[in-house]
C-alpha cells in the first residue's frame, strides 16, 4: 500500500495510559471468552462423580485422565474423527476446484445464458440445507446415498456463496495479464492454471479454510443423513451418541475438546492468512 | 496504488488487446466458458435446484418418508399450515431469537474488533481469544453451555450466586440459547469487522488529526461511516443464519422442544414433521413457506442497498 502505512512501529514502544487501559479491558474480555473452555478442560480432568458434585468448583480435587481414557476405550471417537477428516477434506477439495472454475467462468468467459445462470446461482444463496432439509433428504435417499460418505459430502459441495466471493475476486484481476498470455498463444485453461490460480492464492486459502471450518463443524446435514454410529462425524457423534447413554459430563467435555482441537491448531498457525484472506476476498470490503 | 504508471505502460498494448478479446469471444469463448461452470452447475442442480423443485411438488402431496405413492392434495398442506398454531409458534421463536441475537452480535463484534485493532501488543492473542469459540462445532458449544447453565452443578449460577433454572424455566430457556450463540458466533463477525478496520486508509486519520479532530470525532466521522457497508453485510448474514437456528437449541434441550415447547425453532418443527411424524408433504409445504420468508428478507436487503446507492452515496 502507500508508504504512509509502512512506517514501522517500534515494538518496544512505552506503555501509554490508554494502551494500559485497553490491554486490561482486553484481558478481562478474553477471560470471559476463555472461561467456558477452561471449565470444560477442568471438568474433563475430574472423575465423573466429582464433575456433578454440588456445590461445584473450578479445579479438580483429584486430577485424573479417566474421562479421556474412557473416551478412547469405549467410544467410537477415533472413527468419528476419521470420518470428519475424510468428509471435510473431500468437501474442501471439491468446493475449491468447483467454485474456482465457476467463479472464473462467470467472471471472465462468455457463453450463452450466462446472465440467467448467474441469477440462478445468486438465488441459491437463499437456499440452505436448513430450509430444504426434508426434500433434500428424500432426493439423496432416492440416489441411494443415505448412510454413505457421498451422501454426507456431495450436498455440501454447491455453496453459491463461495462462487460469488471468487467471482468478485476474479473480476478484479487486470484483464491485461490474461490478454498478454492469449496473444502468446495460451488457451483459456492454461491462462487459468498458470496465471489466475497463482494470483488468487490468498482468496482460495480463505475460501478453503472457511469451507473446512464449516464442514468440520456441520451438524445438521450429517445428522439427517446418517444413522449408523460408525459413519457419524465428530459433532454428530458427540451430540447424539454420547448424549443417548445418559450424559457423562467429564467424558462429554473431553470429547468436545477433541472435536475442537484440530481447527484451533489450524487457526493458531494460519490466523494471519485467515484475516488477510477475509480482507482480500472482499468478504469484508463489499 | 500504482494505477497511474500501470495505465501508461499498458496503453500501447491496447490495439492488440482488442484483437485478442475478439478471438476469445468468437473462438473458444462459448465452449470453454461453459466447461468452467459446468461442474459447479451440475452439483448445484442436483443438490439445490432439484430438491427445491421436488420440495415444491411434494408440498402439494401427502407424501410420507418411505416414498409410498403420494397423492396430489392441492393446497391442503398450505391451508393446514396457515392454521397450525405450532408452526406460528415455532416461527415466532425463530424470529424472537433473531431479534435478540442480531443487534447484540453486531455491537459486540464491532466493539471487540475496535479493541483488538487499537491495542498495540499481543494482537494475535486477542484475535485468537475472541475467535476461538467459533472454531468449536455448534454441538460442542451447546453441550458446554448446557453444562454451564445446569442449575445445581453449573458454573453460571455458581459465579453469579443465583439459583435460576436456566434450561427448564420457560422464561430463561431461549435466553440461554442466545447467550450460547453470542459466545459461540461473535468471532466470525468480529473477524469481518477487524478486516474492514484494517482496510481503512491511514491517511484519512492523519488528515483528520491535522485538522484537529479528536479520537471521538475521528471514530464518529471516519470509522463508523467507513464501516457502513460491512455492517450491512454482518447484519444480513446474521439475520439469515439466526432465522435458521437449530443446532444449539436442540442440543441444549436434549433434542426436545424445551420447557413448555419454548425453544422449538422453525427448522426443528420442519424436521419433526418430516422425520418424526413422517409427513414429508406437510414438512415440504412449511419449508417452502420458510423459503419464501427468507427470500423476502434477502430481497428486501437488496432493494434497500440499491435505494441507498441511488440515493446519492
UniProtKB/TrEMBL annotation, chain A:
Transmembrane stretches, start-end: 20-42, 80-104, 116-137, 149-170, 191-213, 249-270
Compartment list: Cell membrane
Gene3D superfamilies for this protein: MetI-like
ABC transmembrane type-1 domain location: 81-270
The keyword NADP belongs to this UniProt entry's keyword annotation: no
Main location: membrane
Domain of life: Bacteria
Keywords, sorted A to Z: Cell membrane, Membrane, Transmembrane, Transmembrane helix, Transport
Any one Gene Ontology cellular component term annotated for this protein: plasma membrane
Keyword DNA-binding applies: no
Family: Belongs to the binding-protein-dependent transport system permease family.
Protein name listed in UniProt: Maltose/maltodextrin ABC transporter, permease protein MalG
Lineage, highest ranks first: Bacteria, Bacillati, Actinomycetota, Actinomycetes, Kitasatosporales
TrEMBL record, chain B:
Family: Belongs to the binding-protein-dependent transport system permease family.
GO cellular component: plasma membrane
Organism, as annotated: Streptomyces ambofaciens (strain ATCC 23877 / 3486 / DSM 40053 / JCM 4204 / NBRC 12836 / NRRL B-2516)
Membrane spanning stretches: 35-53, 95-116, 128-148, 172-195, 226-246, 280-304
Protein name, as recorded: N-Acetyl-D-glucosamine ABC transport system, permease protein 1
Domain ABC transmembrane type-1: from-to ranges: 95-301
BP GO annotations: transmembrane transport
InterPro entries found in the cross-reference section: ABC_transporter_permease, MetI-like, MetI-like_sf
Entry keywords, A to Z: Cell membrane, Membrane, Transmembrane, Transmembrane helix, Transport
Subcellular location: Cell membrane
Pfam families with a match to the protein in the record: BPD_transp_1
Membrane topology reported for the UniProt record: Multi-pass membrane protein
Main location: membrane
